Amino acid sequence: MSDAAGDRSADGSRMDEHPANPARRATRRTKAAIVLGVVLVLGIAAFVGLRHGSQLEYFTAPVTRGDIRDVVDVTGTLNAVRTVQVGSQVSGTIAKLNADFNSRVRVGDVIAIIDPRLLQGALLQASADLENARAGVIAAQATTDKLRAGLVQTKADYARAVQLAQSGAATQSELDLATANYDAAKAAVAAAVANVAQARAAVSQKDAAVTVARTNLAYTVIRSPINGVVVARNVDVGQPGAASLQAPTIFTIAQDLTKMQLYAKMDESDVGRIRTGRHVTFEVDAFPKDTFPGVVSQMRMNATTVQNVVTYDAIIDCTNPDGKLFPGMTAYVTIPVATVQNVLQVSNGALRYRPPLAPDEIRSVYAKYGVDAGSTSAPDAGHASRDAAPSAVASAKVADAPRTTRAAATAIVWKERSDGTIEPVKIALGITDHAVTEVRAVLAGTLTPGDSVITGSLATNTPPPGALSARR
């Protein structure tokens, strides 16, 4: 028989294709197990590779030593120390202006004239009325003198009539007539005296009218009440001004612009930190490269509320010897609250950083380095306590910032060691300028200038061997 015939069984089928062949089934199972094992090994290797192929890239900032200034930044408006609005107390047409914008004037200088003709006529009329009243006094006095002479005559007639009536030479009717004439004469004299008093009162009234007319005429000449500079002129020549209700403003004069005041709007949260006498600096848009000094002279208690924001006015005195500053300019004020010099300082970003570890892992690291996290007071976004007690870490000279014995705020920063590991360091915080914060004391661990504190981290894959990578 041939080889093909030899591979077949008696019923004509191939022996290796028979489903009941146990050797063939064992071979297939072995191959499947090998393939499955290889797949599992590759999956585990890929998982482990992905898990261990990533690491944390740290972003760090160096610990330095330097000065820190805690300041309050506000905006305000420049004003003259004294501003006077010069107006007219009489109505009339502006006849002449002797001052204009930026004119320098002195006390008593004539700066404007109102057309005086109507008021001159009013004065002449009042003067004429006064003379008429005085003539009335003379006439009333003459009438009084005449009636007094008649009174003397009627009094003598009355006395003779009494004597004649007593002797029986005169009748009773003659005596009654003499009595009536005498009483009428006395009444006429009294009336004449009253007319004299009335005439004299009219003289006083007309005299007062003359005084008013003369004063109104004097008001047509407008004089400067102070030494200063005209900062506003509100009328032109020929323009009428009506002073029936209120005095119209003709000029606004600022007194001595070499000294000015700055009205700064202070937020209520900063009011408690500002004291009178504190030196400040400010800038204006007109001179962005110049810095001007000032002194806080007053904190006004009158609050201003705009959209639920409460502010108070801080009055800042400043000098303007060069005349650069103008009233109404917007000033950007920097008020120093506290200053420390030559102190250890860390970036505010380091105060907020926490490594991406489980709570149990973080507690384990704290315990390893002896850090007591339970007593840590969280800093307010890097805004450290300004009232903490002084530290012995650095000899800090503190200016303009009284310190109390209240406990300092604390925080935990993470320092990157030379071997790539990280270490927690607990510190006591001082003042901040919102970029860096003073380290009052190191409570656990070590922190020296030049150390790197972590401000952030990023998970990255491990680069292949030989590839270039940057730590930071």
Please provide a written account of the structure.
With 472 residues, the protein is an alpha+beta fold. The chain folds into four domains: 1-38; 56-68 and 341-461, conserved putative lor/sdh protein from methanococcus maripaludis s2 fold (Beta Barrel); 75-80 and 256-337, Elongation Factor Tu (Ef-tu), domain 3 (Beta Barrel), CATH 2.40.30.170; 116-219. It has helices spanning 3-6, 22-52, 117-167, 172-218, 268-271, 348-352, 359-369; strands at 54-62, 64-87, 92-97, 104-105, 110-114, 221-223, 228-233, 240-241, 249-267, 279-284, 287-306, 309-319, 330-347, 410-416, 422-432, 436-444, 452-461. It has a six-stranded antiparallel β-barrel. The chain has a four-stranded antiparallel beta sheet with strand order 6-5-3-8, with no helix packed on it. β15 and β16 form a beta hairpin. α3 runs antiparallel to α4. It is elongated. Mean pLDDT is 81; it is low at 1-23, 41-53, 378-407 and 463-472.
